[in-house]
Amino acid sequence: MLRIGSKTACMACRNLVSTNMGIKFRVPLQKLHPLSRAIHHRFSGNNNPQRPPNRAAARYFTSMSRLPMRSPKPPSGSGGRSYQQQRSFWVARLASRLLKLRYILLGSAVGGGYTAKKTYDEWKEMLPDFSEYNWVIPDFVWELSEQIDLDKLAKALPEMEEIAKLLPDLDKIQENFSFFKSLLSSETTGDPSLKATDSSAGAMQDGSDKHHKKSSDKEKIDQLQEELLRTQLKYQRMLERLEKENKELRKVVLQKDDKGIHQRKVKKSLIDMYSEVLDILSDYDANYNTQDHLPRVVVVGDQSSGKTSVLEMIAQARIFPRGSGEMMTRSPVKVTLSEGPHHVAMFKDSGREFDLTKEDDLAALRREIELRMRKSVKEGQTVSSETISLNVKGPGIPRMVLVDLPGVISTVTAGMASDTKETIFKMSKAYMQNPNAIILCIQDGSVDAERSIVTDLVSQMDPHGKRTIFVLTKVDLAEKNLASPSRIQQIVEGKLFPMKALGYFAVVTGKGNSGESIDSIKDYEEDFFQNSRLLRDGRLKPHQVTTKNLSLAVSDCFWKMVRESVEQQADVFKASRFNLETEWKNNYPRLRELDRNELYEKAKNEILDEVISLSQVTPQHWESILQKKLWERVSTHVIENIYLPAAQTMDSGTFNTTVDIKLKQWTDKQLPHKALEVAWETLQEEFARFMAEYKGKDQDDIFDKLKEAVKEESIKRHKWNERAMDSLRVIQHNALEDRSITDKPQWDAAIQFMEETLHSRLKDTESVIRDMVGPDWKQRWLNWKNRTPEQHIRNETKNELERLLKLHDDHTAYLANDEVTTVRKNLEGRGVEVDPVLIKDTWHQLYRRHFLQNALSHCNLCKRGFYYYQRHFVDSELECNDVVLFWRIQRMLVITANTLRQQLTNTEVRRLEKNVKEVLDDFGEDMERKTHLITGRRVQLAEDLKKVREIQEKLEAFIEALHKEK
């Protein structure tokens, strides 16, 4: 056995086997290359490669290499002369041995120099061209061999029996690698030492063996290539097992931290801090002096290209809804991936955790994502720009932030909005134009490359490919369907598409079955690439395949971009904060910087104070307002439908009977409803009055729209207690049945109420008549006004009807047909054509005025009629039944106002306060409504200040944590 790496090894053997980083291999002499074996035998004193080496010569050569560099000290007790003799003899022996070795080497070099050169040229022509096999032994294999001491690794993991079993094969692997590397280096770099060795070996080979050696070399190369792939996959599986065990250990540690075993508070992870910054930026108006250029991984691709599947493989869970060919991703989904003890997912605005190891929770998560997507889409649209934020944590998940966008489409199909294609393009460009966004371009490998749309879009946004990573999906279908596998090689080498990229990857994301688990997809992907000719033929490099390599590459690129750009972005927000603070100081020096939420809370307190002030209204004020408004609402009905019909009767008995019947009908059907309407309107008016009174005080004018909206919404929601109507009906009916006026003040009050009512009605009637007939002679002369033809006809009709009333002072309220005919003929005799309907309308107003004038005269007579009423004297001239009617109406108004006031103060005001609070709470949760109702530059400036400060603080905290992690 030859110990590689020792100082006694020959130069040829040391050139064939790598010995860096202390890695030591024992290679059998029979397994050395023939050239190396020949050189070794020659230096060992054995010129016949078939015979065993000359052991005496080998021991002699070895003893020479172990000579001491300094002479030993003379032994104690010996004389100086004896020591000098021994020293001279020792030096002579050393010189003779060195000269003998020099002669041997010089003779060999001079004697065989020309022959070796000629033989090497002939032997070199026999070697095949190994330049095309450079990929078989990548550079990382040699770098790995230099960095890892396999002996130390085996000792560090004594329990790993699998690794221990693999160690005996390392000698053979090292020998093969050394042989192949020597061949490549001799062909490409022309190493003179190897050339000399090759020339010596070529001189020893017979010309008849050239063809045999060439074919055997090719076979050995193919064998080495297959063995390399098997070994690589073997170590990859071993590495995956180690990663799995490491993941379990980290999970245990994280669980202990989560349970507080170490008695310390677990800090937020870097990616969580970074995600919070992005969430704030998504709500911030980026058009105001600040652009969001923080890195994100933007996932774009054609529809059904496999974007969602790639994301799920990175997140290690089937978290997205799926459909058969239809568009499922309808809005951007921001997925924050981070490491945690449990594999869970949660939304930014929800505290519920979805356990991704349970199928029920996975199904619930997919339904929730689909529901949120459809809810974010406005009516008439197909996609939405509203971002859904989702956090996914789990052991071993790479840390990064990805944004999944709707797939790019080429045609708008039935059921889609007409602008869907342009909307998706605009949304994708908005995310990709961020100079620090990492574009993960997904291309379907199972379809023709020429059908791709997204590659042109990506090449426009990143023409130099400085931040683009290309992913070719469904490679299994591509290998099966494509007649020319070289097209796949062209794609992953960036030679087929016009776009450029940082890296190219090929992945397999399952067999297309939505029920497949992530583990089964990983196994399928590993088996496919292990058996794929694409990898064996060198069309795909090992580091370009599997989603595992893809996720690691994307994560590294993401964090590199974050470290390069985050401090610059923090400086931008710092400058924006200074500008906003300066503007606030110059424009609003005496006001606090209240944002929209704080201003809303201030307005909410003011509105609640105003509602509470309703309880401070005095009972007298409530009753006075209610009584007045109720009479205004019912007075017309009382005069027209009750008093006038009853007054047409000839005696008091008929009058009272008619009045009782009319009042009963009115109370059963209309009066309670009218009373409640009046009460509700009064409450609204008082509420509005109190809110208006605050405007003149310290109220901020930016609250006006909000208060008006709260008032309208509260009134809309408020409904009067229906049970109050039944009790009110009973109270009003009892009040109207009472006819007993007990004292003179009540009588006088009724007379006054009746007189005021009649005067008001008479005034209104006379105003109507004036409008009908036009200006009188005085107004015509003084104001130069003339009557219209219709007013002239009305005036002539009025004059004719007044003559009729003078002749029949006790005429009824209705004009007979023959009387209408008579009036019409009389007017025609004066040349006036009149319609019978006009005659009746004019008569109605004239008779009302006539009746009211007579009623007022009778009211004056009844002022002294209380004595006769109390004694029940029968006197036709002093029958004051109409006064009793008005007293009954007046008493009903008083009692109704008192009842409504009690309902208002005891029940309805409190219910209104409750409604106002509910409306304010609802408005407080509706950010869109608050933004619409509380507006102004001051509000927007305070909002921007708050956001920029929060972003800057979180960025600084993130940067500090990032530096600590370094």
Low-confidence stretches: 1-85, 101-111, 130-150, 152-170, 183-208, 259-266
Task: Give the helix tally.
Answer: 35
Structural class per helix/strand content?
mainly alpha
Biggest sheet statistics? 9 strands, mixed
How would you state the average pLDDT, rounded?
75
> How far is the N terminus from the C terminus?
47 Å
What would your notes on this structure say?
By secondary structure, the chain is mainly alpha-helical. Among the domains are: 306-432, P-loop containing nucleotide triphosphate hydrolases (Rossmann fold, 3-Layer(aba) Sandwich); 434-545, Rossmann fold (3-Layer(aba) Sandwich); 611-924, no CATH class. It contains 35 helices and eleven strands. The strands form two sheets. A nine-stranded mixed beta sheet has the order 6-5-7-4-8-3-9-10-11, sandwiched between helices. A two-stranded antiparallel ribbon has the order 1-2. Helix 11 runs antiparallel to helix 35, helix 24 (671-695) packs antiparallel against helix 25 and helix 27 crosses helix 33 (881-925).
Question: What's a concise summary of this model?
Answer:
This protein has 966 residues and is mostly helical. Among the domains are: 306-432, P-loop containing nucleotide triphosphate hydrolases (Rossmann fold), CATH 3.40.50.300; 434-545, 3-Layer(aba) Sandwich (Rossmann fold); 611-924, no CATH class. 63% of the residues lie in helices and 5% in strands.
